[in-house]
Amino acid sequence: MSLSTAPAPQPAGGPPDAGGGPEGSPLKRLFAFSSLNAAKLGSLQVVIGLVVIWTVFALAHDRFLTATNLTNLALQIAAVGTISIGVVLVLLLGEIDLSIGSVSGLCAGIMAVLNVKHGLDPVLAIVLALLAGAAIGLLQGAIVTAFGVPSFVVTLGGLIAWQGAQLMVLGDTGSINVTDPTITGLTSTFYPAEVGWALAAAGLAVAVVATVRSRRSRTAAGLPVGAVAWDVVRIALPAAVGVAALLMFGSARGVPLSVLIFLGLVIAMDLVCRRTLFGRHLFAIGGNAKAARRVGIKVKRIRLLVFVLASTFAAAGGILAASRLLAVNQASGSGDVLLNAIAGAVIGGTSLFGGRGSVWSALLGALVIGSVSNGMDLLALESSVKFMVTGAVLVLAVVIDATTNRRRDDA
Amino acid sequence: MTVKEEREPLLSLRGVSKRFGAVRALDDVSFEVAAGEVVALVGDNGAGKSTLIQVMSGTLVPDTAEVRFDGREVSLGSPADASRLGVATVYQDLALCDNLDVVANLHLGHETHAAAVLSEVEMERRAVGLLDELSVRVPSLRTPVGMLSGGQRQCIAIARTLLGAPRVVLLDEPTAALGLVQKEQVLDLVRRLKARGLGVVLISHNMAEVFAVADRVIVLRLGRRVATLPAVAEQQQAVVAAITGADGGIPVAAGGFA
Ligand SMILES: Nc1ncnc2c1ncn2[C@@H]1O[C@H](COP(=O)(O)OP(=O)(O)OP(=O)(O)O)[C@@H](O)[C@H]1O
Ligand SMILES: [Mg+2]
Question: Which residues are in the ABC transporter domain (chain B) (predicted)?
Answer without folding.
Answer: 11-247
